[in-house]
Amino acid sequence: MSENHFDTVIIGAGLSGIGTAVHLQREHPQRTMAILERRERMGGTWDLFRYPGIRSDSDMPSFGYRFKPWTSTKVLADGPSIRRYIVETAQEYGLADKVQYGLQITRANWSSDAQQWELTALHEPSGETRTYTCRFLVNCTGYYNYDAGHRPHFPGEERFGGRMVHPQHWPEDLDYAGKRVVVIGSGATAVTLVPAMTDKAAHVTMLQRSPSYVFSLPDTDRIAMWLGKVMPASWAYSITRTRNIAIQRGLYVACRRWPNTMRRLLIKQVRKRVGPDFDMRHFTPDYMPWDERLCAVPDGDLFKALRAGSASVVTDHIDTFTETGIRLKSGEEIAADIIITATGLDVQMLGGIDLSVDDTPRPINGQLTYKGVLMEDVPNFAWLFGYTNAPWTLKSDIAGRYLCRLFRYMDENGYVVAVPRDEAGSETDEGILDSLQSGYVQRAKHTLPRQGRALPWKVLMHYGKDRKMLTNGPVDDGHLRFERARSGNAGQSGSPERMAA
Fold this sequence. Notes:
The chain is α/β, with parallel strands linked by helices. 28% of the residues lie in helices and 23% in strands. Strands 1, 2, 3, 4, 5, 6, 17, 18 and 21 form a 9-stranded mixed beta sheet that branches. The protein starts with a strand and ends in a 17-residue tail after the last strand.
């Protein structure tokens, strides 16, 4: 076999890719594996984003790996710490030498004759094209375009005499000390940047078209610290993780079940932190909680900056950029030396890979997801997509465990191919994220996979139910079709194709 042939290829060496690789390495050490990463370093999102204050927006005990405790007491960890955690995990589980860097996968084609994937990759440092083959392909590239963020054109921006920056590509030489900074946006990136830049900037203004729900989390988990002193670290981590997952789910359910009550509570906690004289229209959204993601800030750092006067919020629409700043529809002008366009992500599925089966394009927006992990009519292919209402890695963790169960079932029964088939006609026109009203989701609705009317085709966004289905439910549930190796395929044996009932 070619030296570029593997039993499993994982695309992406970020949090999901390394976590999935650990599961496969532990449960199936006999299977050859490669991790193909486009960047020159491990870490994915946590290597790409370098803007001030970059951090998780989920607590680390539940955002981190189930099998590797997060030992810091910080609830929301900074980006460099998360990247170090990913690298340490890869080294601890012997995965560092399985990562190949600088590879942009441009095409992935499944060959039914060879019963394998054929990958075309551009090695960007050298410009050469490389090919890989594998029996099973696992995509862990996330959901956004690494090359560019969402960046709308603003009227008159060519006239602006200062510097414009998108947070996704933060320049190392950006000196904002003593400068007037305007951050355009109201999402997680904006509420992180604003307080983080006030230590050096003359003033930071968050300019938003409409408010988001923002709530404060403790920066340090004192209960977890106490548990760590009275019991083994692994017990303390497990208890903290379970507690945090339950709290997150409870918050989401409460927002959906009692939206008006939760809306009042979320706004009330902001009022308490910004003071009685603050104009609360800047934190009073015109939608209900969890129609879009909530934004978390550690120890209310954003509110502290607003109360101290080192930062401010303006809610208005942009009329035009000027030479010295931004003029708003209201006529107000905001002076700026630097403008940060925290305007969101550009959603991109599969890292831009052209997916095909037997040279016939198979765009995923025309397919159903199976258990939120596999893809309808696409053989031996997993697509790891995390939660929008809970930490991303909760889903990637149980998806990795499910793949281990699937591989074990196939090995025990002599199968080499598994493909989900929707033979009952469960398809709908509903996308997997249609209920989320965030701008980046709505812009990308036409690119996302669809979901069906019922399980296993319906996307639940429910960790408890997904965990039961993926880690305990039957592998052969009547919706997967399996094949044994065809005669002549190297390294594979068995009888002709068998279709599972």
